[in-house]
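Input (structure):
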Protein backbone atom coordinates (compact mmCIF):
# COMPACT_ATOMS: atom_id res chain seq x y z
CA UNK A 1 0.00 0.00 0.00
CA UNK A 2 1.49 3.38 -0.95
CA UNK A 3 2.26 6.00 1.70
CA UNK A 4 1.34 9.32 0.08
CA UNK A 5 2.34 12.93 0.70
CA UNK A 6 0.25 15.66 -0.95
CA UNK A 7 1.72 19.18 -0.91
CA UNK A 8 0.76 22.49 -2.43
CA UNK A 9 2.92 23.15 -5.47
CA UNK A 10 1.33 26.50 -6.35
CA UNK A 11 -1.82 28.55 -5.85
CA UNK A 12 -3.85 26.19 -8.08
CA UNK A 13 -2.05 22.84 -7.84
CA UNK A 14 -1.23 19.97 -5.53
CA UNK A 15 1.46 17.35 -6.09
CA UNK A 16 0.90 13.92 -4.57
CA UNK A 17 4.00 11.72 -4.24
CA UNK A 18 4.88 8.35 -2.74
CA UNK A 19 7.82 5.94 -2.58
CA UNK A 20 7.81 3.29 -5.30
CA UNK A 21 6.28 -0.07 -4.43
CA UNK A 22 8.45 -3.06 -5.36
CA UNK A 23 6.78 -5.08 -8.12
CA UNK A 24 4.14 -2.45 -8.94
CA UNK A 25 3.34 -1.88 -12.62
CA UNK A 26 1.60 1.40 -11.89
CA UNK A 27 -0.57 3.48 -9.59
CA UNK A 28 -4.06 4.98 -9.57
CA UNK A 29 -4.53 8.43 -8.03
CA UNK A 30 -7.95 9.47 -6.70
CA UNK A 31 -9.24 12.84 -5.44
CA UNK A 32 -12.28 14.10 -3.52
CA UNK A 33 -13.36 17.36 -1.88
CA UNK A 34 -14.24 15.60 1.39
CA UNK A 35 -12.84 12.67 3.35
CA UNK A 36 -15.92 10.52 2.94
CA UNK A 37 -16.91 11.97 -0.44
CA UNK A 38 -16.95 10.42 -3.87
CA UNK A 39 -13.40 9.88 -5.14
CA UNK A 40 -12.63 10.48 -8.81
CA UNK A 41 -9.86 8.63 -10.61
CA UNK A 42 -7.44 11.38 -11.72
CA UNK A 43 -4.69 9.31 -13.31
CA UNK A 44 -3.21 5.92 -13.92
CA UNK A 45 0.56 6.37 -13.95
CA UNK A 46 3.84 4.48 -13.71
CA UNK A 47 5.37 7.55 -12.00
CA UNK A 48 5.60 7.97 -8.22
CA UNK A 49 4.03 11.42 -8.26
CA UNK A 50 1.11 13.23 -9.83
CA UNK A 51 0.29 16.95 -10.04
CA UNK A 52 -3.34 18.06 -10.24
CA UNK A 53 -3.83 21.56 -11.65
CA UNK A 54 -6.76 23.99 -12.00
CA UNK A 55 -7.67 23.69 -8.31
CA UNK A 56 -9.26 26.41 -6.16
CA UNK A 57 -6.85 28.23 -3.82
CA UNK A 58 -7.24 27.30 -0.13
CA UNK A 59 -9.80 24.54 -0.80
CA UNK A 60 -9.09 21.21 0.88
CA UNK A 61 -8.61 18.28 -1.50
CA UNK A 62 -8.36 14.67 -0.33
CA UNK A 63 -6.25 12.01 -2.02
CA UNK A 64 -5.77 8.26 -1.96
CA UNK A 65 -3.54 6.08 -4.15
CA UNK A 66 -3.35 2.37 -4.82
CA UNK A 67 -0.69 0.35 -6.60
CA UNK A 68 -1.35 -2.39 -9.11
CA UNK A 69 0.60 -5.15 -10.79
CA UNK A 70 -0.28 -6.49 -14.23
CA UNK A 71 -0.64 -10.26 -14.27
CA UNK A 72 -1.18 -10.96 -17.94
CA UNK A 73 -3.85 -8.38 -18.74
CA UNK A 74 -5.39 -8.36 -15.26
CA UNK A 75 -4.63 -5.63 -12.71
CA UNK A 76 -4.03 -6.94 -9.18
CA UNK A 77 -4.49 -4.04 -6.72
CA UNK A 78 -2.95 -3.15 -3.37
CA UNK A 79 -5.08 -1.59 -0.69
CA UNK A 80 -5.69 2.16 -0.82
CA UNK A 81 -3.29 4.49 0.96
CA UNK A 82 -4.45 6.41 3.99
CA UNK A 83 -6.50 9.41 2.85
CA UNK A 84 -4.47 12.62 3.14
CA UNK A 85 -5.43 16.20 2.31
CA UNK A 86 -3.74 19.41 1.19
CA UNK A 87 -4.76 22.92 0.17
CA UNK A 88 -3.27 24.81 -2.78
CA UNK A 89 -1.57 28.03 -1.65
CA UNK A 90 0.91 30.40 -3.34
CA UNK A 91 4.45 29.09 -3.77
CA UNK A 92 7.28 30.08 -1.43
CA UNK A 93 9.47 32.99 -2.58
CA UNK A 94 13.22 32.55 -2.89
CA UNK A 95 14.68 35.75 -1.44
CA UNK A 96 17.98 37.42 -2.30
CA UNK A 97 19.28 40.18 -0.02
CA UNK A 98 22.13 42.58 -0.86
CA UNK A 99 23.59 45.88 0.27
CA UNK A 100 22.08 48.87 -1.51
CA UNK A 101 24.56 51.41 -0.13
CA UNK A 102 26.06 52.46 3.19
CA UNK A 103 22.67 52.58 4.97
CA UNK A 104 20.34 50.43 2.82
CA UNK A 105 19.59 46.78 2.14
CA UNK A 106 17.49 45.45 -0.72
CA UNK A 107 15.47 42.20 -0.62
CA UNK A 108 14.23 40.83 -3.92
CA UNK A 109 12.43 37.72 -5.20
CA UNK A 110 10.92 36.39 -8.42
CA UNK A 111 7.24 36.85 -9.19
CA UNK A 112 5.13 34.09 -7.64
CA UNK A 113 2.51 32.87 -10.10
CA UNK A 114 -1.01 33.63 -8.89
CA UNK A 115 0.12 35.93 -6.06
CA UNK A 116 -1.69 39.22 -5.51
CA UNK A 117 1.07 40.54 -3.28
CA UNK A 118 3.76 39.86 -0.73
CA UNK A 119 4.23 40.20 3.02
CA UNK A 120 7.77 41.33 3.89
CA UNK A 121 9.24 41.31 7.41
CA UNK A 122 12.68 42.27 8.71
CA UNK A 123 14.69 42.06 11.90
CA UNK A 124 18.17 43.04 13.11
CA UNK A 125 18.68 39.54 14.56
CA UNK A 126 17.78 36.26 12.89
CA UNK A 127 15.81 34.97 15.87
CA UNK A 128 14.50 38.37 16.94
CA UNK A 129 11.15 40.05 16.59
CA UNK A 130 10.33 40.78 12.95
CA UNK A 131 8.77 44.06 11.86
CA UNK A 132 6.03 43.66 9.29
CA UNK A 133 6.29 46.13 6.40
CA UNK A 134 3.26 47.35 4.41
CA UNK A 135 2.00 44.71 1.94
CA UNK A 136 3.93 44.85 -1.32
CA UNK A 137 2.88 44.32 -4.93
CA UNK A 138 6.46 44.72 -6.21
CA UNK A 139 9.06 41.94 -6.11
CA UNK A 140 11.63 43.89 -4.11
CA UNK A 141 11.88 46.15 -1.10
CA UNK A 142 14.71 48.50 -0.12
CA UNK A 143 15.03 49.21 3.59
CA UNK A 144 16.83 52.51 4.29
CA UNK A 145 18.25 54.28 7.36
CA UNK A 146 20.08 51.19 8.64
CA UNK A 147 23.45 51.08 10.41
CA UNK A 148 26.49 50.34 8.24
CA UNK A 149 27.76 46.77 8.70
CA UNK A 150 24.70 45.80 10.81
CA UNK A 151 23.03 42.67 9.32
CA UNK A 152 19.37 42.96 8.38
CA UNK A 153 17.33 39.73 8.11
CA UNK A 154 14.36 39.40 5.75
CA UNK A 155 11.60 36.88 5.21
CA UNK A 156 8.83 37.04 2.60
CA UNK A 157 5.62 35.17 1.88
CA UNK A 158 3.21 35.51 -1.02
CA UNK A 159 -0.56 35.82 -0.72
CA UNK A 160 -3.52 35.38 -3.03
CA UNK A 161 -6.92 36.97 -2.50
CA UNK A 162 -9.86 34.57 -2.36
CA UNK A 163 -12.76 36.97 -2.10
CA UNK A 164 -11.54 39.28 0.65
CA UNK A 165 -9.45 36.61 2.41
CA UNK A 166 -5.67 36.71 2.02
CA UNK A 167 -4.40 33.14 1.62
CA UNK A 168 -0.68 33.03 2.46
CA UNK A 169 1.89 30.57 1.21
CA UNK A 170 4.86 29.40 3.25
CA UNK A 171 7.45 31.89 4.50
CA UNK A 172 10.75 32.04 2.64
CA UNK A 173 14.05 30.99 4.12
CA UNK A 174 15.46 33.92 6.11
CA UNK A 175 18.22 35.79 4.26
CA UNK A 176 20.42 38.68 5.38
CA UNK A 177 22.91 41.29 4.23
CA UNK A 178 24.61 44.30 5.79
CA UNK A 179 24.64 47.83 4.40
CA UNK A 180 28.15 48.66 3.17
CA UNK A 181 29.51 51.65 1.29
CA UNK A 182 29.28 51.36 -2.47
CA UNK A 183 32.42 50.47 -4.40
CA UNK A 184 33.86 53.51 -6.21
CA UNK A 185 33.70 53.32 -9.99
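Output (sequence):
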Amino acid sequence: TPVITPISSGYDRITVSWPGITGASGYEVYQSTSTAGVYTLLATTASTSYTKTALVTNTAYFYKVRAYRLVGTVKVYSGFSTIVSARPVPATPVVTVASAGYNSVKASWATITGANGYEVSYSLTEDGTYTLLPLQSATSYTLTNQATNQPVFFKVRAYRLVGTLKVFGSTSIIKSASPIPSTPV
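Notes: The chain has a mean pLDDT of 97. Residues 42 and 154 are 40 Å apart (CA to CA).
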